[in-house]
Structure formats: C-alpha cells, structure tokens
Design goal:
The complex is a heterodimer.
Chain A lengths: L4 E13 L5 E13 L3 E5 L6 H9 L6 E6 L2 E2 L10 E4 L11 H12 L3 H14 L15 H13 L5 E5 L7 H18 L2 E6 L2 H7 L2 E6 L2 E6 L1 H6 L4 H6 L4 E11 L2 E6 L4 E7 L8 E6 L5 E3 L8 E11 L3 E8 L2 E8 L16 E5 L5 E5 L2
Parallel strand pairs in A: 3-8, 3-9, 6-7, 7-8, 13-20
Antiparallel strand pairs in A: 1-2, 1-4, 4-5, 9-10, 11-12, 11-14, 12-13, 14-20, 15-19, 16-17, 16-19, 17-18
Helix pairs in contact in A: 2-3, 2-4, 3-4
Chain B lengths: L1 H6 L1 H31 L2 E2 L5 E2 L5 H6 L2 E2 L9 E2 L2 H33 L2 H12 L6 H12 L4 H13 L12 H25 L3 H9 L4 H30 L2 H7 L6 H10 L4 H26 L3 H5 L1
Antiparallel strand pairs in B: 1-2, 3-4
Helix pairs in contact in B: 2-13, 4-8, 4-10, 6-11, 8-10, 8-11, 9-10, 10-13, 12-13
The chains are: A alpha+beta, B mainly alpha.
The structure holds adenosine-5'-diphosphate (ADP) and magnesium ion.
The site of magnesium ion has 2 residues of chain A, from α1.
Amino acid sequence: MASEFAVELRDVVKKFITPEGSEMAAVDHVTMQIRNGEFFSMLGSSGCGKTTSLRMIAGFEWPTEGDVYIEGKPMGHLPPFQRNVNTVFQSYALFQHMTVFQNVAFGLEMEGASKDEIARRVGRSLEMVQLTGMDRRRPRQLSGGQQQRVALARALVKTPDVLLLDEPLGALDLKLRKEMQLELKALQQQLGITFIYVTHDQEEALTMSDRIAVMSKGKIMQMGTSVEVYERPANRFVAEFIGESNFLEGKVKSVKGDQAVVDVPAWGEELIGIATGKVKAGDDVSVSIRPEKVRLTDKQGIKENSLEAVVTTSTYIGSDTHVYLDVRGQRFKVWEQNRISTLDPRAYYANGQKVWVTLLSENTLILPKA
Amino acid sequence: MLKRLRENKSAQGTLLISPTLIVMIGLLIIPLILTLIVSFGQRSPDGNVIYSFSLDNYIRLAGFSTDCTGGASFCFNPLYAQILWRSLALAFNTTVLVIALAYPLAYFIARAHPKRRTTFLFLVLIPLWTNFVIRVYAWMMLLRKEGVINIILGWIMGLLRIPFTPLEMLYTPGAVLVGMVYEFLPFMILPIYTSLEKIDNSLYEAAADLGANSIRTLLRVTLPLSMPGVVAGTILVFIPVMGTFIVSDILGGRQVILVGNLIQRQFLDARDPTFGSAASLILMVLTLIVTYFYTRKFGFGEEIVVA
Ligand SMILES: Nc1ncnc2c1ncn2[C@@H]1O[C@H](COP(=O)(O)OP(=O)(O)O)[C@@H](O)[C@H]1O
Ligand SMILES: [Mg+2]
C-alpha cells in the first residue's frame, strides 16, 4: 500500500442549497486522516454531516472545496466504481428482486469474474457473515439482522481496501446490536481492512473504534482514541456529548504545564485541574468533573479539595447508585459503585444526608468552551 | 342483530362490499348472462331476437356460411377470424409501442427533481381532460390528405424543390396504430412512473458502488424493479385496445375493421344483436385467455397496485 493513510480528507467543504434557497455547509473544512487497517468512527448527533462525509469518500457526493484522497491519490470527481471502497448502506439497499446469492454476486459479475470464481467467493463471503445455506432466499424472507449481514457480505466480497458503514446497526434491537458490534469488530480485525463507521451512538463508537472523530455542525470537534475522547475531551462539547459530566463555569487564573488554576465563582473556590485544550490566564472555561470520578465520604477528607454537600436524590440502579447533591447551591451528580453487597439502606445514601465530596485535580478537567 | 354483526367479521365484510356487489350483479353478471342467452338466439327478419338455442352465430363467426356465392351450399371464409386476429395484433403492437415510448418518459419524470415531477405528471394528464373522440378527431386533422402534416411536408419539399404528392395516411392501419398509441400512452406512463418512483435512490447508489455503470444498472436493477408497473400498464392498455372501436372508426374508416367495430355495427347498423352478442363474448373470452396467460407469467403488477 502506497500511502500511510487509507483515506484522507483535506480541508473538505460540502455545501448544499437548502429548500429556502440559501447555502449551508453540511461539512465545514474537515480534515482527517484514517490509517490503514484502522477502525475509525465518525460520531455525532443527527445532521452533523457524518453521512455526507462518508458519501464523499464513497464518491456519491463531490466536495465543494478540498479533496478526498484514497491511498494517497486525489479522488476528484471519480465515480464510486472507480474507488476501491465499498459501502454498507443505512437502509441496506438490498436488491429485492434478487436472491441472497445474486445480491452478493452482483459486484463480482460487474467485475467480469468467472462463474466458478463467483460461486467460490460468494460462498466464502456468506460464510464469513454466517449466512451459509441462505443463498436461495430473497431479502424479504430474512430478518433485519440477516439482511444486514447480506449487505455486509455484498460489500466485502469486493475485497475493498476500505469499508464504509453508515449506521449499519441502527435498525436492529439492542441485544442484536451489541452482538453485531462485537462481530463487526472481530471481522474487521480478521480481515485487516479499514472500516470507516458512522454512528450517533457514543457507546457503540467507544466500544468498537480505534479512533473516533467527534463531529458537530459539520466540523470535527476532536479526533482521538476512545480513551482520549472520554478522559481528555478537547472542549466542553465533547465532554457533554460523550458520557456524563458536572460542569462549572470559571475563569483561568494561571496555567503551569498542563495544569491550570480556575476561579469558580459559583463555589467561591479555586480549583486545580488538567487543561486539555489550549487555555491561558483570563480565559472563560468550563470545569468538567465526571460523576464516577468523585469520592463521597462521611467525614471531611483532604482539606483543600473537600466540599460539604447535601444529598437531594439517591437512585439505586443496580451496579451503581446515582447520588444527586447540592454542593454550595449547585447541582452535582456522583455515581457511586455498589462495591459491597448489603441490604443496609445507609450504604445507599438518604435524601438530606450530609456528605463530603472529594475532588482530585487529576479528575478535574479544564475545557475551552468551543 | 347489531351485536352479532359486531362479532361476525365475515358478515361485516359482506356488508361492506354489498354496494359493489349489487352494482356488479346488476350491471355485469346479469347483462353478461343476457348477452349469452341472446348470442344463442336468431335474428328475426325485422331485426328482433328470436330466443332459441342455436349455434348459428358461432358457426358464422368461425367462418362457415351457407350463404355462398357460386351456388355452393356450404363455404368457408375466415373473415371474422381475420378481424379478431387483426385486433389482437393491433393490441399487441400498440402495447409494445406504448411501453417503448412510456418507459423512457416515466423514467425521466421519476428521476427529475421532485418539484418538477408534479408539473410533468400534470402535462401527461392534460390530454385526458379533452374528450376521447375529440382527441381522435384532432389526429384526423393532422393525418388527412389536406392535413397539417401534409401541408408542412409539402412546404418543406417545396423549399427543397422536390415534387411532392400528399401522403395517404388517414384510413390506414398505421393511422389507427398512431391513434391508439396516443390515446393509451398515459395509462402506461402512470403505473411505470409509480413503480420507478418507489425505487429508493440508495439502490442506484448500491449498484454504482458495486461497479455497475448506468446501462447495467438500468438492465439489472431499474428494469426488473419496475416490471410491476409495466405489467399493470400492459393490462390497462391491452384490454381496452382490444375492444375499442372509436379510434379505428375515425382513423381507419372502412379500411381497418376491428372486432369492436364489428360488434358496434351488428348492434347499430345490421340490427343483429344475436351476432353482436356472440362476437362480444368471443372478444371477452379471447381477452381473458391472453390476460390469463400473461398474468400467470408476470402477475398483475400487484406490488404497485397494492403497496
Ligand atoms: N442532498 C442534500 N441536499 C440538501 N441538504 C442535505 C443533503 N444531504 C444532506 N443535507 C443536509 O446536510 C446536513 C448533514 O446531513 P448528514 O450528513 O446526512 O448528517 P448525519 O448523517 O450526520 O445525520 C443536514 O442538515 C442535512 O439536512
Ligand atoms: Mg446519517
């Protein structure tokens, strides 16, 4: 493989004309590099431009500005069939008038493969997605999960360098979705090809991906591994979109290395935390504290970062107890793991109970607001 | 009574279809039985029906006659079989031509911008607002010896200094075919459009993604998926063309007699309802047979009718 990157988007813009007649950038100056053999996800809420980005890689849309590079080569206006990528469509887009076998064979027939080769490769492909023996069925006679597998087999049989998947599990129920997540990931590792995966489900993206691009309004908010985007969100948007967080508004007093001191007026406190993005003294920032990274104690802990609080609601949810607190007039949530098996109600916090909240500077994140 | 009706699903169904049922029995089944009875009757010299059980009309339709020239007591002239065959061939040719013209048009409309589609469909329907007969007469104006087409052709030939004798287009089988195609085109465009319009865009993209160019996409994806529309359109065109007499009457004159004209003349000119009834029934049976074999092979296009 010629290039280090399987797919590259360089400063890509895609504008659409809205029904009202104005221009709208569905993808707004996006640059991303997707490595060979990587499981790469685009994550973002509906309408943020994930599908449009994927369609530009596939060749169904052409960028208004910038270009898509596949294996280092600029794609320009190359049609889909001249790019060595294949797509698994959100709606599966199976040919209803063909059998499973014919659906999967379609792409090989277009290549002019021989009958023997088609039979062999279709067989292998169906085996890969565990649909052996279903080849005579029509798509209508299959369950949603099986149709999904046909769509997968149909794309994989072409042995693309890159497989594009647009919310492929969106239509499946939760249990099947979880199974398919693992299966897809295993398949990707076994085949060693690059997967570019679009989803709005953060858990799905975190579980499956080597790297994730978090998108909002056509822009990339952060690109990184699951651990990076969760533990070191680049800004408030990412921290809010992925997982849950307590947010406090503040102003940076000083920065030293990757640590910053922030004045939080709501608490009348100065907090020390890790600055994930570029911040400097005087910046307005958000302080983010994940609810599972806070410790609750009955007595005051280490003086300088222990705050007194009152429990407003406590919800037992099995593995955890969700404790909602009032900390100096601010709502604050803490997830306490139920580590000890007990029926004693005191272990699960009562409304009105006084507790101490201990914040550690390594769990306190100072985020730019963007 | 009402309570029982509420519990009885099949009684509900019967009640719901009863208006249709009454109309069907009153206006279809009973007349059909009457036609059958009349067809076995004989014409009285003053043009009334003598009820009997005689196969004379059917024997006559098959081409056998006792009223022969040259004094023979029995002769064979397949005149009516020829008329039936001509009708069948014309209906077939019309349908094929209509498909060939309607498909590209329907495809074009289905692939047009959604805003424009309504306009195009509107244009397709406009001719239907004018009376059927008037539209056929319009073709007469075009095809006549002194008609618009000949005038334009003559003018062009005049410019090119080529001697020109006006073409005889009216009262030819070609004129009837043109008229039929024109009349029935919308009934093919609409069902094909409906089935094309239902093909999700992602299927075209999937085909392109898998390496198909536009021609192969058309042949392997678009055409098969729009077959229900073609089938429905074929039924909507073939059956009426088999029976219609107005187009052939106006554009074919005495030259192109179809089974529809034959029936019409028996009732109105020859005043022989018994022979007319027999011919009607034969037409119906023939149409039924063709439709039966056709739908057995291709279905009714129900996907488009139902979905
Ligand atoms: N063909 C199109 N014409 C006009 N607007 C479009 C078109 N495709 C997408 N958009 C708009 O672009 C934005 C991004 O869409 P999309 O990429 O589908 O988002 P996502 O997949 O992240 O939900 C949306 O606001 C959508 O309405
Ligand atoms: Mg999408």
